[in-house]
Design brief:
The complex is a heterodimer of chains A (about 375) and B (about 80). Chain A is α+β, with helices and mostly antiparallel strands. Chain A is about 30% helix and about 25% strand. The longest helix of chain A has 26 residues. By secondary structure, chain B is mainly beta. Chain B is about 5% helix and about 15% strand. Chain B is elongated. The chains are: A alpha+beta (about 375), B mainly beta (about 80). At the A-B interface, strand 5, strand 6, helix 5, helix 7 and strand 8 of A face strand 1 and strand 4 of B.
Chain lengths: ~375, ~80
């Protein structure tokens, strides 16, 4: 694994704008950054990323199968009791997952270590599936990168295939915070893939979902919502005014309610309990678990519910050396062993390994000058060389 | 790794709507109705037309407007 500086395509902004990728620059700062790329060998991709991703996904499904009806586990994950039946029924009905992204610390040596699983509302899928592929093709054509370069990336075609399975002829609503450029772009991309799979679709703002007195959710045209992709976290759905209606409504959601167990940072502690010393896992414990003392005075503290790195703290020798601000933490924390991110030219990359329909199928990289990857981290492309 | 993974260079990534003038259906409401189904009520749109309004705004209240999904990766740790 190497970080290789390379020339930018002089027209990449126009290319991005033409593809509807209008969040390539956020608040005046680069989000898409092709002044460098990460190069991997095929062996690194296959052995260090693809195989562990598939293995961890299987472990996660095993975990859900054990935890889904285990009151003790659900309490430790701070899942509100009112939603246990909804979550359990979605699992036992085998409601389908479309996608997810595992985040790893990996620098080219040793085992990739799982940092967390973005199981519910992962974003950056358009840039991973489409725009970094466009970068690869154009950069090869323009002799900016080696001719034989390849990419670990079949996300786009797998999404289309997955929609065919998941959709099964039903009308699909896609809901999210449509005023947010990144969320709107993600929804537009997923809608595009769903339509290529033959589904009829409707885009709706999450706040525009309506409830009828028969307990069904409707759009603004009073059309019943049978199948909905939501770019909106389950833990927020649970706390919303309509949350209590979820169990009565016939709507099927993507991601399904059982994914609420895997998007919870507590799953890292449960995974370590179930698969201790697995080479791709970091020791992790609930903070109130006496075994957490095994980590000593250096660890990472993560809220059970947290996004964008918010409220994550890096503690070294008992001193908090980096801490991200944020609104999370009321439900408690986990502690995870320190596995510092590798450093390349002063940058700390995190590997995002994508799953579609449970199959590892692509890679994305976010890097930052800060060892806690957050909302402002840049997306860099990768190549297999 | 399967053959189709090994031949990634044969991919064709095509967008049919995104970035083009083509758009899918967008639920905007304000569709005139002659009668409203149970659980909804007639209301006037900004142009004075009648549409059926269910009870809205029950999702999106928690953390709405906050930008935050699984886009950041937690930590390095």
């Amino acid at each position: 694994m190497q970080r290789i500086a390379c020339p930018e395509r002089d027209d990449w902004r126009a290319t991005a704008d033409g593809a509807g990728f209008d969040f390539h620059t956020i608040d005046g700062e680069r989000y898409w950054d092709e002044r460098a790329y990460y190069a991997f060998t095929l062996d690194e991709i296959e052995r260090a990323i693809e195989e562990p991703t598939g293995e961890i996904e299987a472990m996660c499904l095993e975990l859900v199968g054990r935890a889904i009806d285990d009151e003790n586990c659900l309490r430790r994950l701070k899942i509100p009791e009112a939603f246990w039946p909804l979550i359990s029924e979605s699992w036992h009905r085998d409601e389908a997952s479309l996608y997810g992204r595992l985040d790893f610390s990996f620098g080219g040596r040793g085992h990739a270590k799982l940092l967390e699983y973005n199981a519910d509302t992962p974003t950056s899928i358009f840039e991973a599936a489409v725009f970094q592929w466009t970068w690869l093709e154009q950069s090869i054509e323009r002799n900016l990168i080696p001719k034989r370069s390849d990419q670990f990336n079949s996300i786009h075609e797998r999404l289309i295939e997955a929609w065919k399975k998941v959709g099964n002829g039903r009308h699909l609503h896609l809901a999210g915070a449509t005023e947010n450029a990144e969320d709107a772009g993600t929804l537009a991309y997923l809608e595009d893939t769903a339509r290529q799979a033959g589904l009829a679709t409707t885009l709706i703002d999450i706040g525009d979902i309506g409830l009828r007195d028969d307990g069904s959710f409707v759009d603004l045209d009073s059309r019943g919502i049978e199948l909905a992709f939501k770019l909106y976290p389950w833990e927020w759905m649970f706390q919303d005014a309509f949350g209590a209606q979820l169990k009565n409504a016939p709507t099927r959601w993507i991601e399904p309610p059982w994914k609420a167990l895997l998007s919870n940072k507590g799953m890292l502690a449960l995974l370590w309990e179930m698969f201790p010393h697995h080479p791709n896992l970091l020791p992790a414990y609930f903070e109130d678990d006496p075994n957490a003392a095994a980590l000593g005075a250096s660890f990472v503290r993560k809220p059970i519910y947290s996004r964008e790195g918010a409220n994550v703290a890096l503690v070294s020798a008992g001193v908090t050396v980096v801490e991200q601000s944020g609104p999370y933490g009321a439900e408690g924390f986990i502690r995870q062993a320190l596995a510092p991110l590798p450093e390349f030219s002063g940058q700390y990359p995190v590997i995002g390994s994508w799953l579609v329909d449970h199959t590892p199928c692509g890679l994305s990289i976010r890097e930052d000058e800060n060892p806690i990857t957050g909302n402002t981290s840049r997306f860099l492309p990768h190549a297999i060389v | 790794m399967t053959d189709d993974n090994r031949t990634k260079r044969s991919r064709r990534v095509v967008l049919t709507m995104m970035g083009s003038a083509a758009v899918g259906a967008v639920s905007m409401g304000f569709v005139p109705r002659e009668g409203c189904p149970p659980g909804s009520e007639p209301a006037l749109d900004p142009r004075g037309g009648l549409y059926c309004r269910a009870f809205y705004g029950g999702f999106g209240g928690y953390g709405y407007g906050a930008h935050g999904h699984g886009h950041g990766h937690g930590f390095g740790g």
